[in-house]
């Protein structure tokens, strides 16, 4: 399935941050999404796509490169940059004649490197929602045919990310049992307008970047309670969408300062002594000061009792980070950043590899696709999207060991082999020796463990008998746990050894390809 050079379709890619698959396909869902339901009936729909890392920056990097995070380098939320030597979807499409545009928000800051290959990469504030002038501008551009064909437009939506964006007209049980469901219901109309504005001949993709925790209980004796106790993070009850107020989240408009501070800390901790030189201290302190001032300004204009309490707590955490930086202790500063990211957003996502955090929907439709609409129950991986889109659009993907596998045959009548999925979670901040969960999903089993902490518990789930992952079988099935742990560790090392500086050597490519093939990943 390849389009000729003269018949390349326009491509609209809608990525909804925190979109769980069960909110598009789940029979028990309480949201109301008539426009999305209609699109689903016209699409080839995959309810079983899984991401490697359930947090935005690593997930987008995996999506655009088709590689796991040990290869592309974006393993967490802060202090990371994508490997510039890797080809990306945007670069490949741009070289093939596409006019590439991106409308993104949240942590997808230009400094991450994810925007490489886009002719236009617009990072908007996190309060520029679909209902604001930003949404009107995007729709106006599409309807006025502002983008020169063939175009590729990425639209990253933030409405269902905490703090949920729920217009008053949708804030009732009629639109969903939780604020998450109501925010998703409210977004339905805008997504329908986007699809209509793209035109009848456009190829349209609707997907997410990771899942979200919406009321799920975290059982005792598992990895997260172990880490929260070890790191002295307060055990937080999850009261759905009541603790994080919109005014508190506004400080993230200064997210690039926090990211830059973390990037500097991460670079410093790679040195032998990990001490912060005096010349670095001032830059980091100024970045943190900008974040604190933005929080203060937010509360000056939007005070609420809940927001003031939360802001005071965050200011104390800023102080602890700044104090560690001033004393030259980069490790303490980085550890405090980890505590902030694990506690500040009340364990929404990014802290584990449970299915409700890693399972997303993937829908693709368009008359040029030439396939019949249907529900495709095969399990596919997020890293497979880039090679799939390149194949159906007629572009060659430069070979790289560890690259995902195209599932384009599933859009027709073909089949593909189901492959294991490597997984990671780092809690948001770049601190692998304090909080690092590695996982693997293979042969109906899910394993999660802490590779650098032998005292941490291991979690093993039989996904066929226990799809909700409630019964930990690690003690009862030690042989399976040991086998999967070895497989995950071998894979992680193989992927990491293939990270290119400019280009991987032929020998490295051969060794990695053989390792991945032996494990069933190629």
- N/C terminus separation: 21 Å
Structure class: alpha/beta
What is the average of the pLDDT values? 82
- CATH class membership of the largest domain: Alpha Beta
The biggest sheet amounts to:
9 strands, mixed
Principal-axes geometry comes out as: globular
CATH architecture of the largest domain: 3-Layer(aba) Sandwich
Poorly predicted regions: 237-254
**Helical proportion?**
25-40%
> DSSP strand (E) fraction?
5-15%
Tell me the CATH topology of the largest domain. Answer: Alkaline Phosphatase, subunit A
How many distinct helices? Answer: 17
- The ordered H/E elements are EHHEHHHEEHEHEHHHHHHHEEEHEEEEHH
Give the total of domains: 3
**CATH superfamily label of the largest domain:** Alkaline Phosphatase, subunit A
Quick take:
This protein has helices at residues 22-25, 34-42, 56-65, 69-72, 89-95, 133-143, 179-198, 223-230, 246-249, 255-269, 278-301, 305-326, 330-344, 355-358, 385-393, 478-497, 506-518, and strands at residues 11-16, 44-50, 99-104, 120-123, 151-157, 203-208, 359-365, 374-375, 380-381, 421-425, 437-442, 445-449, 459-462. By secondary structure, it is of the alpha/beta class.
Structure description:
Strand 11 and strand 12 form a beta hairpin. About 3% of the residues have low confidence. The strands form two sheets. Strands 1, 2, 3, 4, 5, 6, 7, 8 and 9 form a nine-stranded mixed sheet that branches. Strands 10-11-12-13 form a four-stranded antiparallel sheet, covered by helices on one side. It has 17 helices and 13 strands. The chain is an alpha/beta fold. It folds into three domains: 268 residues, Alkaline Phosphatase, subunit A (3-Layer(aba) Sandwich); 100 residues; 98 residues, 2-Layer Sandwich (Arylsulfatase, C-terminal domain). Helix 11 packs antiparallel against helix 12 and helix 12 packs antiparallel against helix 13.
């Amino acid at each position: 399935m390849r389009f000729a050079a003269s018949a390349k379709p326009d491509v609209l890619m809608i990525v909804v941050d925190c979109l769980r698959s069960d909110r598009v396909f789940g029979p028990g869902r309480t949201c109301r999404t008539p426009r999305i339901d209609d699109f689903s009936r016209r699409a080839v729909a995959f309810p079983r796509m899984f991401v490697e890392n359930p947090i935005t920056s690593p997930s987008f990097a995996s999506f655009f490169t088709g590689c796991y995070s040990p290869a592309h380098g974006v393993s967490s939320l802060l202090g990371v940059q994508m490997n510039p030597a890797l080809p990306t979807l945007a670069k490949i499409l741009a070289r093939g004649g596409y006019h590439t545009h991106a409308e993104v928000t949240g942590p997808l800051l230009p400094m991450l490197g994810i925007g490489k290959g886009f002719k236009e990469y617009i990072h908007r504030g996190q309060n520029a929602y679909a209902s604001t002038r930003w949404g009107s501008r995007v729709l106006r551009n599409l309807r006025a045919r502002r983008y020169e064909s063939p175009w590729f437009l990425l639209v990253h939506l933030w409405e269902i990310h905490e703090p949920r964006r729920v217009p008053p007209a949708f804030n009732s049980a009629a639109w969903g049992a939780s604020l998450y469901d109501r925010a998703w219901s409210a977004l339905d109309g805008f997504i329908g307008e986007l699809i209509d504005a793209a035109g009848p001949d456009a190829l349209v993709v609707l997907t997410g970047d990771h899942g979200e925790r919406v009321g799920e209980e975290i059982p005792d004796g598992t990895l997260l309670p172990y880490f929260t106790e070890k790191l002295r993070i307060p055990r937080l009850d999850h009261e759905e969408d009541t603790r994080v107020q919109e005014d508190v989240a506004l400080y993230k408009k200064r997210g690039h300062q926090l990211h830059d501070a973390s990037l500097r800390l991460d670079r410093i901790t790679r040195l032998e002594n990990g001490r912060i030189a005096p010349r670095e201290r001032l830059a980091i302190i100024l970045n943190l000061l900008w974040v604190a001032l933005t929080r203060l300004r937010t509360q000056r204009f939007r005070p609420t009792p809940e927001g003031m309490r939360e802001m005071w707590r965050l200011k104390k955490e800023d102080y602890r980070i700044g104090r560690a930086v001033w004393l030259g202790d980069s490790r303490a500063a980085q550890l405090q950043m980890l505590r902030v990211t694990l506690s500040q957003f009340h364990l929404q996502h990014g802290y584990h590899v449970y299915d409700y955090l890693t399972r997303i929907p993937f829908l693709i439709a368009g008359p040029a696709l030439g396939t019949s609409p249907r529900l495709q129950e095969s399990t596919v991986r997020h890293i497979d999207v880039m090679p799939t889109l390149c194949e159906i659009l007629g572009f060659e993907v430069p070979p790289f060991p560890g690259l995902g596998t195209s599932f384009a045959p599933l859009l027709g009548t073909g089949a593909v082999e189901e492959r294991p999925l490597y997984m990671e979670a780092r809690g948001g901040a770049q601190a692998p020796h304090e909080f690092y969960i590695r996982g693997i999903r293979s042969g109906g089993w899910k394993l999660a463990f802490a590779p650098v902490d032998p005292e941490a518990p291991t979690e093993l789930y039989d996904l066929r008998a226990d799809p909700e992952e409630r019964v930990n079988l690690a003690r009862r099935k030690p042989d399976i746990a040991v086998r999967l742990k070895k497989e995950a560790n071998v894979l992680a090392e193989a992927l990491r050894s293939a990270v290119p500086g400019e280009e991987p050597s032929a020998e490295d490519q051969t060794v990695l390809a053989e390792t991945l093939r032996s494990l069933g990943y190629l």
